[in-house]
């Protein structure tokens, strides 16, 4: 458990999966969490489950204007926001030659541009506030070109998130703004349900993971929470693997 006493953290994509476990960890660490998700039903359900220190804002991470409006509203309505965790993302699993321009654009727009826009929208506030911690959720796909579940568009979006994370770390450091990313591999969430339910595909992916199993979302959340907490006060620009040993770089 990491300490989030006196911290208020925005978590995108917190309606389910890895984002939800991350939001839970902030509450368990005595902090306040602001859940953002495009899915109102799961977002509100997560808020209800986490209690009075959780709030929910509907946000479409594929719409830059909406991201900026919602973040501005959050900053108006909450006194001291100390962190941003970008978890929202979508998968794209078509073979390279079958990826349409629309699929490419949508994957990059939600996974990469959405992460950029959320960071950009909060950056001036963190500058004024004397700092802030940004944590992005990337993927091993961004390092190894996909191949577990996501393919070229997904891998490219996550490689972009890794580059963006390092650039923000470099430019934000002097303002006390840190930026790190976590790269999970196969994790049991609604995103990977089809993969988990397909014995052949499941076995193929598991055979690539030295630990010989998929992760539970709470195991990924632990690394995200570490980066997002003061326990990682001197960690900046780190792209951390939480992948059972696939990447080994
Ligand atoms: N599950 C895995 O195996 C795995 C592996 C590597 C990386 N990741 C990454 O972890 C993150 C979370 O994945 P997950 O497995 O929990 O996925 P998930 O599909 O279970 O949850 C994703 C959440 O993001 C929300 N979301 C999707 N599009 C959105 C949008 N446009 N605006 C706002 N919210 C939106 C969804 O409503 C959902 O609540 C993603 O960025 C994903 O790429 C997951």
How is this structure best described in words?
- It is a single chain.
- The chain is of the alpha/beta class and 249 residues long.
- It has a single domain (8-241), classed as Rossmann fold, CATH 3.40.50.720.
- It contains nine helices and seven strands; from the N terminus they run βαβαβαβαβααβαααβ.
- It has helices at 17-28, 40-50, 64-77, 101-129, 141-144, 152-172, 193-197, 199-206, 217-228; strands at residues 8-12, 32-37, 54-58, 83-86, 132-137, 177-184, 239-242.
- Strands 3-2-1-4-5-6-7 form a seven-stranded parallel β-sheet, sandwiched between helices.
- Helix 1 (17-28) links the parallel strand 1 (8-12) and strand 2 (32-37).
- The longest helix has 29 residues, at 101-129.
- The chain is globular, with a radius of gyration of 17 Å.
- The mean pLDDT is 98.
- It binds nicotinamide-adenine-dinucleotide (NAD).
- Residues 12-13, 15-19, 37-39, 42, 59-62, 87-90, 110, 137, 139, 184-187, 189-192 line the site of nicotinamide-adenine-dinucleotide.
């Amino acid at each position: 458990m990491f300490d989030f006493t006196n911290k208020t953290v925005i978590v995108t994509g917190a309606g389910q999966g890895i984002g939800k476990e991350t939001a839970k960890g902030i509450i368990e660490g005595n902090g306040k969490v602001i859940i953002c998700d495009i899915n109102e039903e799961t977002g509100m359900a997560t808020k209800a489950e986490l209690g009075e220190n959780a709030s929910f804002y509907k946000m479409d991470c594929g719409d830059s204007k909406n991201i900026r409006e919602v973040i501005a509203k959050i900053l108006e309505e909450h006194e001291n926001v100390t962190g941003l965790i970008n978890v929202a993302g979508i998968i794209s699993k078509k073979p390279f030659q079958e990826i349409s321009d629309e699929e490419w654009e949508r994957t990059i727009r939600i996974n990469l541009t959405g992460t950029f826009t959320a960071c950009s929208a909060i950056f001036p506030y963190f500058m004024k506030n004397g700092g802030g911690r940004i944590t992005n959720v990337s993927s091993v796909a961004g390092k190894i070109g996909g191949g577990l579940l996501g393919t070229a568009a997904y891998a490219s979006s996550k490689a972009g998130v890794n580059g963006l994370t390092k650039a923000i770390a470099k430019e934000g450091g002097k303002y006390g703004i840190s930026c790190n990313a976590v790269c999970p591999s196969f994790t049991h969430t609604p995103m990977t349900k089809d993969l988990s339910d397909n014995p052949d595909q499941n076995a193929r992916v598991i055979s690539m993971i030295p630990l010989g199993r998929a992760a539970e979302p709470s195991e990924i959340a632990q690394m995200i929470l570490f980066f997002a907490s003061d326990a990682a006060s001197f960690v900046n620009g780190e792209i951390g693997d939480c992948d059972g040993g696939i990447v080994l770089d």
